[in-house]
Write the structure tokens for this entry.
Amino acid sequence: MKELMSPLIDRLIDLALEEDLGPGDITTRALIPPEMQGEAEIRAKEKLVVAGLPVAAQVFARLDPAIQFEPRVQEGGEVENGAVLAHLTGPVAPILTGERVALNFLQRLSGIATFTRKMVEAVLYFPVALVDTRKTTPGWRALEKYAVRLGGARNHRFGLYDGVLIKNNHLTAVGSITEAVRRARKHAPHTLKIEVEVTDLAGLEEALNIGADIIMLDNLDEATMARAADLTMGRALLEASGSMTLERLPQVAATRVNFISMGALTHCAPAVDIHLRLLKEDLGGGPGT
């Protein structure tokens, strides 16, 4: 969880607060005395996998360190509709000001974790790993990949700098799989594996012959993937990619590929429903008290 405490996440929170708050929360400023104290709860409004509580806590701390944020469930745990995710105490005004930004983080990240968990369960009994892609919201990659892990899947490369993945446009520019892998071997650190994308069995054979470490089977049908596994015989790891759906995942997993990459884990996951409610009966302070 250390990536959630990075300067990048601090900047993202600041940008989100700046976007929402602007020069000030005019509604809360007009209605809520600064001395008013109270309590609030964050609750799930549907069954979900929890992700983002540390980020939500940082949002409120950024507005007022006096707010006490107490998680009531485990990060990465599955909860039922109505579950209390966190309890807040402290000044009411900054709690209300930070409500939407905190919930935006929670709903988005918990949505990814919940969606991912469903996909992972579809291939649970196959010897295959489900992985994400770089199809993430700009600026949110560390958070979204964190949510994917909480959902039970694994991360593919984080960026262009930590993995060699030769794709179709690289091959068009270079001319062949063989030449592309040779150039990658010459320039990439020896600690990095070389992955190359292929679109047919001829490309698979060429990639195997040149010694690619991982071969991405791009948009192949299940029969061709199974044939690719037969031809590979463990000489390289196989990754299936393209047009993955919940219904198709078990069929692809049965072809004996090692990985299934699924961009939908991040770019198609719907936000889940979470809300914050002020506990009026616990309010104190303000005029006349």
User: Anything to note?
Assistant: Residues 92-122 form the longest helix (31 residues). The CA atoms of residues 132 and 156 lie 6 Å apart. The chain has eleven helices and twelve strands.
